[in-house]
Amino acid sequence: MRKFGNFVNIKCANSVKRSKNMSVKNLDNQILSVLASVETISPDELAKKTDVSPSTVRRRVRNLCEKGLVKHTHGLVRLNRESNFTESFTFRKHRNSLEKKRIALEAVKLVKNGDVIFLDGSSSAFFIAQYLDQFDDVKVITNGIDTLSLLSQNKVNAYSTGGRVPQFNGSVLVDSFAIDTIKRIHADICFLSALTIDDDGNIWDTVEEENSVRREMIAASAVKVFLCDSSKLHKKSTFKMCSVCDFDYMVCDEDCSGDINLCGCKLSVTPS
User: Fold this and answer.
1) Composition of the chain by helix, strand, coil, percent to 5
2) pTM to 2 decimal places
3) CATH says 10-85 is which class?
4) Would you say 158 and 142 are in contact if contact means Cβ atoms under 8 Å apart?
């Protein structure tokens, strides 16, 4: 903070504060990304991987523990995979990334040149977006901010649903504006995900606003595809989104047909 006589440069002070807040957020995302790729890790090793001091890592780990995102026990740090907190998009992209890539490669076999496609704001749908540049003249509508950016970088025709950026998740667009946009579109196919699916085939998530957007995408699509890595199986969450019966296809990295009531939804299992 610089002083000029009796005056303080408030603009400079605010800029420094914003920069500090942003760097802390980036560090937290780096820590979560590292933890997504390992079972456990010591704070000292985590400090080496994130290129900061061990004391800084310990402070950030304490903060992430308070948020319920990580656990620090017996001198080791790990993700809290039972957390109901909304995780950062960076964190979700790295979690089960190999399975999500395999699911995406299998799911895009359903896409045809010229298709109009809905993608939700999930990390699973983000992996679908990585492979759409191989198709001619597809049009993609998404409420995922990171997905929209990726599609644009890959020179794919991409459209935003518009909507409000919620405080709980800065990577998606929700609310009536997004829903009204979706209602004015008919898509050939949609690719959606959610947090969990139980043995009765009910699909769940922690955020009802995102569920509302997904339900509209389902209603406005000719073919519906549910993207589900095996970490989502046999679980319930806070809000029921719909049933797997509402989808034509479910793409998973595990054959769950004997455990989950698919009620007519066709299961496609990725090659191992």
Assistant:
1) 40, 25, 35
2) 0.71
3) mainly alpha
4) yes
